Amino acid sequence: MSSHTAQTEIKFQGKLVIEADLTCETGLHIGAGKGSLEIGGADNPVVKDAFGRPYVPGSSLRGKLRSLLEQAAGLNPSTMVYLSRRRGQEVRIHQTDKPNDEICLLFGRNPQRSERVGGEAQDGGVATPARLAVFDAPLDPDSITAQMRENLDDELTEVKSENAVDRITSQGSPRTLERVPAGARFKVRLVLDILCDEDKELVAKVAEGLRMLEDDSLGGGGSRGNGRVKFSSVKASWRGKSYYSEGGDEKALLADADLAAFLKLAKNGIAAELS
Q: Domain range for residue 26?
């Protein structure tokens, strides 16, 4: 837990900008739904931007980081609340009113009336602004090489065929899955607002979540081999309050590093740098 208390005063100090390359180690599938199914196309297309290029939605990356950090904290299911209770589409997240809860500090806290998984509904408590913003990560077109394009089913994506087999009848149920191919690279950008001295402790949690993701999966079908990713070329920059109000300089803290170096920076001396 952090050193935040109920008396902690929020006063904007600056923003820590974190940028990195996210490279697909295996095919990546972040679904776009089945609203428009083309004849001969994949059953499950990936999400694409207005130019038809795949991208990693900030909501997908942010949600995965939150889920991993909740798991790492060993959070009790009774502290979870329902975001959605639609049958078959229940969504549960961790939320408490504790002022030192790092998950709630990073991702925000909603004060509205909520229904707890392990109890009755209760009125919302204190609202907490989210410190962490995660932006959509665009595809680096140069990462899809000419050699890769020769073996792709589409200009930028591949189609993976899968077959679920009934254990009793041995009847197959084939399906196709569109994926961004291994080797594709996306440009990731996260911004952590530092609203008080205690917020500097949250940098290490961001680094922890990113490191956990490298040994987990992003997107759908992770247990079937999809979504293994790796971060590289990590860059961290500090933009203090004067950067915005007076045109002050940006302070470079890290460049072309890996997540191990970022975590080391977060745990050793980051507080002195964010000033």
A: 14-74+129-273
Whether 258 and 231 have beta carbons less than 8 Å apart is answered as: yes
Distance of CA 23 to the CA centre of its chain: 14
- The 10s digit of each residue's pLDDT in 222-233 is 999 999 999 999
Q: Which of 44-48, 108-112, 114-118, 212-216 has the lowest mean pLDDT?
A: 114-118
Domain assignment present for 154: yes
Instruction: Determine, yes or no, domain membership for 79.
Output: no
What is d(CA 272, CA 63) in angstroms, rounded to the nearest whole number? Answer: 30
In 3D space, the residue among 53, 56, 50 whose CA is nearest the CA of residue 28 turns out to be: 56
Distances from the Cα of 169 to the Cα of 70, 161, 174, angstroms: 40, 21, 15
HSE-CB of 133 using CA atoms within 13 angstroms: 8
Evaluate whether residue 118 is within a structural domain. Answer: no
Give kind and range of the element (H or E) at residue 147: helix 146-150
Contact 172, 163 (CB under 8 A): yes
Q: Is 19 helix (H, G, I), strand (E, B) or coil?
A: strand
CA-based nearest residue to 274, from 99, 6, 16, 44: 16
**Model pLDDT for residues 17-49, shown as the tens digit of each residue:** 999 999 999 999 998 865 444 444 456 899 999
Q: Is residue 55 part of a domain?
A: yes
| Neighbouring residues of 241: CB distance < 8 A, sequence distance ≥ 6 | 12, 13, 14
Q: Where are the alpha helices (DSSP H) in 3-130?
A: 58-72, 102-107
Q: How many domains does the chain have?
A: 1
* pLDDT: which is higher, 165 or 92: 165
pLDDT tens digits for 234-270?
Answer: 999 999 999 999 999 999 999 999 999 999 999 987 8
Q: Three-class SS of residue 208?
A: helix
Task: Please count the other Cβ atoms lying within 10 Å of the Cβ belonging to residue 206.
Answer: 22
